[in-house]
From TrEMBL:
It comes from the Bacteria. Keywords: Cell membrane, Hydrolase, Membrane, Metal-binding, Metalloprotease, Protease, Transmembrane, Transmembrane helix, Zinc. Its EC number is 3.4.24.-. The lineage of its organism: Bacteria, Candidatus Yanofskyibacteriota. It comes from Candidatus Yanofskybacteria bacterium RIFCSPHIGHO2_02_FULL_50_12. This is Protease HtpX homolog. The keyword Cell inner membrane does not apply. It is found in: Cell membrane. GO terms for cellular component: plasma membrane. Binds 1 zinc ion per subunit.
Length: 303
């Protein structure tokens, strides 16, 4: 029978499987481009550029995310209620207390950021503080602390690096094919060149789909970890239910940071067809609520 532990373990395995597929995909794309254009240096250059760009973004991702969200720091004196909940959860989770921020927005939402637990931050909207009951807010904050404890920022950065490598490879190949010519055509390499062009067009799309799939799996993982932390899955389930019924908009929502929030900040843009799900940054809220309530009914929580 599925329980909190099996869901958590399952999503960890699926995440690493997707990362492994990503690595194999990069090697395959690099090999196709090398065969089509006779230039293996493309792969080495692309990897170097992408690594430098993404490592720099990793170190400053928390500051960028906070700035883009319009969040403001909050002190213990300004909001003892929020600090008390976070501190209690951190003691249970064995995590240092992150920096706390408030986003002035009526929408119920929150996100965590930071390269490691020692340099982490959590931002919550005023709507979350005003509209959620104590156990619901606790469930949301436990979900965000789980992102920190599960090193999701690190996983996301690795995925961004891999997606960046593929995108740069594809762009370099297309530019060289259009402007550089290819001496492989004279050696019967036209078919390989065509395959390379098709791969260059489709590879970034495939990379984005894998990136989104990893993001969705980490949301399920944070739900399960957060439920284990509070020992009350219904709290987070109820919070997600309120989020699904919340029709307000988040003023400072950006596509670049949408995947970081506990739910999609762009209300009304979620679709539920199989095709729409491929391009979603989050699993459908109805699916997450159903899974959490299945965990609750299974009676898997430790006494």
């Amino acid at each position: 029978m599925a329980n909190l532990y099996t869901h958590k373990d399952s999503n960890i395995r699926k995440t690493w499987l997707l990362l492994a597929v990503f690595f194999v995909f990069i090697i395959a794309i690099g090999w196709i481009f090398a065969q089509a254009y006779g230039s293996p240096e493309i792969l080495y250059i692309a990897v170097g550029i992408s690594l430098v760009m993404n490592i720099l973004s990793y170190w400053y991702s928390d500051k960028v995310a906070i700035a883009m969200s319009g969040a403001k720091p909050v002190s213990r004196e300004e909001n003892q209620y929020l600090y008390r909940i976070v501190e209690n959860l951190c003691i249970t989770a064995g995590l240092p207390v992150p920096k706390l921020y408030i986003i002035q927005s009526p929408q119920i939402n929150a996100f965590a950021t930071g390269r490691n637990p020692q340099n982490a931050a959590i931002a919550v909207t005023t709507g979350s503080l005003e509209k959620l009951a104590n156990e619901e807010l606790e469930g949301v904050l436990a979900h965000e602390l789980s992102h920190i404890g599960n090193r999701d920022i690190l996983v996301s950065t690795v995925v961004v690096i891999l997606a960046g490598v593929i995108s740069i490879l594809a762009d370099m190949f297309l530019r060289m094919s259009m402007f550089g010519g290819s001496d492989r055509e004279s050696r019967g390499g036209a078919i390989a060149l065509i395959i390379g062009l098709v791969a260059a067009i489709l590879a970034p799309i495939a990379a984005m789909l894998i990136q989104l799939a990893v993001s969705r799996k980490r949301e399920y993982l944070a739900d399960a970890s957060g439920a284990l932390l509070t020992r009350y899955p219904e709290g987070l389930a109820n919070a997600l239910e309120k989020i699904s019924q919340d029709g307000t908009r988040l003023k400072h929502a950006h596509n670049a940071t949408a995947h970081m929030y506990i739910s999609n900040p762009f209300k009304g843009k979620e679709g539920y067809s199989w095709f729409a799900r491929l391009f979603m940054t989050h699993p459908p809220l109805s699916d997450r609520i159903r899974v959490l309530r299945q965990m609750e009914s299974s009676g898997a929580l430790p006494e």
